[in-house]
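Annual report, structural modelling task.

Input specification for the manganese (II) ion complex:
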Amino acid sequence: MIKPIIAIAGSLYTETSTPFLGNNFDYNNNNYSKCIVQANGIPIYLPVIDDLDTIQKQLSICDGLLLPGGNDINPLLYNELPMPKLGKCNDFIDWYQINLINIALEKNLPILGVCRGAQVINVACGGTIYQDISYAVNSPLNHIQNSHLSEKCHPIYINANTILNNILENKYIVNSSHHQCINKLAPNFIISSVAPDGIIESIEMINKSFVIGVQWHPEMLALKDNKMLQLFNAFVYNCTKFNI
Ligand code: MN
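The model returned the following structure:
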């Protein structure tokens, strides 16, 4: 069987010390690559670029797209003005990742979005974000755990008849490191799980084989949590089917 090539969408880190002061570096958490390899995929990294034709060609050699965690999305992209608790945004990364998602959807590539990745899928498809969880509910849980993300934080309740339910069943304990959350769902998406305070923890696109966004960080759990690794297995498996 040919192992599918999984694109990990780029993010940028701006250097704060000399001699590269202010320079952008492409970067990502190496755990994404490790999890994809564990799940029998071939991870490749897509650097952030500002050319649509290049994005098309980047994705033309890929069988699936993973969108990593990262900064907040500029709320102007979902027609809202910035609120006081909005975090750091980067218009270049937003532009790149939204175009990447749109082209991947055109190509029917399976997509797994993690944390910001889930949010940017929702925004790219026409949904909105709460700029801070405190704007969503009055008494939220702590969704920014202080402990290491290899440890677990809060339960999620998983809806029946969802892809996630096939993987994690009705309830699972996840980690949590997000100050924003999904507000209005994009068309053709469903909520597949929520936290006990009602915060949306995962979404799925209904008219695609595997387009999923999760608000937690499975890449920080899956290397020692075999059940969480099944999420990567399911993603890579769907990319494999596309490959045949
Ligand atoms: Mn959470």
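The first helix runs from residue 30 to 38.
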